[in-house]
């Protein structure tokens, strides 16, 4: 057997291409599919104010190879720009800021296309937004002209384009992601350790048969065979015994599980050369983690219960598959099997057989779901690969912005302010860090002030009082107002670079539909080096 | 109020207008006992700061420090630029591949930012002595090696002389992996140090040799087999070079054949390279976050315009961007039994039936030790020395002996040294896990 296999020649090597080598360190995070999504994205930055945080964001998107980037910026370069923005140089002074930024950013990656506005052909933001080029995401930085903001908001609504606001002043910053509707993610990249789903409490016939075959004569197995039983098989064997002694039920309470664990541990042979058995150690260690009655994960529950705001949304691949998975769950009281088996001590052949049993069941579940999808109007053309991915990740599917737009932001802000005030009062007892909402509140009144204008702490507090009446009395809000006033609209390069990094991460997640983006506002406090995500 | 306070610019008022508003004027959180606004800008222009690493974090750190008003920066990096650096190390271009990272990075930033002087050192940190490190006000590290971090940490802790204020050199350290990272501030002997925090960066568990040799189950097992066993047996090239595609290809082909033999799927060229080189995924965005978090602390340390990490409480910021954004900023406590900055011996759980060889092998895997070439002494007696060869030969017979036969007892203190950290003697107190 070995000879036959060894004489086969492995496929001829096609070493990685130059592009794969250049992007190697990021392809390990989001794979070729994520890279393709990134390369077809077209991003617009509407830049104003001190103008650095948005540019630092773009830097982190140009480097990994975003498709196209555009900058709209009315300003000309001043000397103050050279003290905060790395992508401008002496020779830029007095010239168009958008042009000079674009030129120096594009040096970072020849594969990225870039454009800058206003230029000879497109002289205003309005004409840019009415041009045929459709943007994947739009970023803008505060302080922004109110008329620009309303142009962007209506564009975002019309084209269903995610709109991201960023504000950075001195040590403080926040950014806010406005998604055009519910945003589901399947490829959430959960931690490996969280994904183990072995179904030991509800094994299917093939798995039961496999375990029985291996353990039929367990006491007479050689030390080698006994010491290489996969822990899945060990647990299934002793579960059968337990059920026989307990009227057919599995260990369910903590006490029963620890009792079961010690039964498993005691079954290890200790009279062998090693004085114990690693596979039995693994089995005992897995008892509490794997003997759990599965419940519907909260992320998926939200998907199942989601009510569509628009009928068109319902026909997307994601929702058709989600409906089929819901039907599957209602019928079987379990999710489709992901089919992954963690590494465990076992002989190679036995482990591969076990792996195949799980894979076969996973394929069977996915096929049932695919059948349901294809029987639904509009589901005929769904890519089976999309169904497979959903089935593998079903327990970790996540819905962002599920209630987006249902409550007005102004009301929502008051509600969150009240919640944060309550949790701050208990912070000493709960040992939770204090809310960063005061920073967001103090930055809000300066969202439309140009960087040249001075705004006093008192002026800021007046603005806060209009947003959340009473908040202007809060001592932490007063301090935050003074800190914002100290910056006079100026940016610190470090804070701009830090927040530019966070925003770029978020945009990568949104564009690739991988990992989980924030929902929906992130506040950064550069004095205490801390962030908080708030749903506003 | 703060907003009325005067601004104190230094040599270029117009250029640093935003920065000066923050660094030369107090805010509501500024410690007025430490802060002297009118000296800040001028002092910062005179400060000499050291950056270790000119890679993903290092490029960002050099940019950030130059944009924070520092004018005299040194940078150490012994590496040359590789194609796979270009997705994040933004001071390098395709034409720079093969050149010194420290030199290219320094030249780029000097060309871009007027008035900053950056001195590159294309060598190892171990090439310099304490006199060299003493000239800097603080050190910012952007490294991918735990060993280099531990070395500079031990060096800076050793340099502390309680009588001389200037001998305390703050160490600001960043690290990233994928969408995650951390930034921390260490004030040698005052706060918890890198060695105190070592167990937070546990080494990856090694796959047992018998799994590789006879019962592989995962594609990684096949690759490790090719790397550890097949290479040694066949020696297809005189010395394994992880950066040579021909060498990686040889390992890949070997691993693939082995995988086919055992019906294991998933061996790819990329995975082979990842396992053999222990590649950590890295992106520009995360480096941007962590490097800026470090330099934000540098600005605060240099100016006192706001409290920095490490004084008095939180000294560590953990960042994770995989699932939403989560930061945890906390105080990592100094450890009395830290071999570098503490004075107590650390407890070491050992099986008394072990041979000295087994004890020595165990140091590499222990999260709190991570020593690859340890030499061991006990109560003035040398039990085993790795160097020099004559002493090694003389002490080698001890390796076969059991700990108890060497006269070691429960509670006994042993001293361990490792050439990677020449200045440190790791003190351990034996704690037997079984009765003798």
From TrEMBL, chain A:
It comes from the Eukaryota. Residues 23-533 form the THIF-type NAD/FAD binding fold domain. GO terms for molecular function: NEDD8 activating enzyme activity. One of its GO terms (biological process) is protein neddylation. Pathway: Protein modification; protein neddylation. InterPro entries: APP-BP1, ThiF/MoeB/HesA, ThiF_NAD_FAD-bd, Ubiquitin-activating_enz. This is NEDD8-activating enzyme E1 regulatory subunit. It comes from Cladorrhinum samala. The lineage of its organism: Eukaryota, Fungi, Dikarya, Ascomycota, Pezizomycotina.
UniProtKB/TrEMBL annotation, chain B:
One of its GO terms (molecular function) is NEDD8 activating enzyme activity. One of its GO terms (cellular component) is cytoplasm. Pathway: Protein modification; protein neddylation. Residues 348-433 form the E2 binding domain. GO terms for biological process: protein neddylation. It comes from the Eukaryota. Keywords: ATP-binding, Ligase, Nucleotide-binding, Ubl conjugation pathway. It catalyses: ATP + [NEDD8 protein] + [E1 NEDD8-activating enzyme]-L-cysteine = AMP + diphosphate + [E1 NEDD8-activating enzyme]-S-[NEDD8 protein]-yl-L-cysteine. It is an enzyme of class 6 (ligase). CDD domains: Uba3_RUB (cd01488). Its EC number is 6.2.1.64. Coiled coil: none annotated. InterPro entries: E2-binding, ThiF/MoeB/HesA, ThiF_NAD_FAD-bd, Ub_act_enz_dom_a_sf, Uba3_N, Ubiquitin-activating_enz. Catalytic subunit of the dimeric E1 enzyme, which activates NEDD8. Belongs to the ubiquitin-activating E1 family. UBA3 subfamily. This is NEDD8-activating enzyme E1 catalytic subunit. It comes from Cladorrhinum samala.
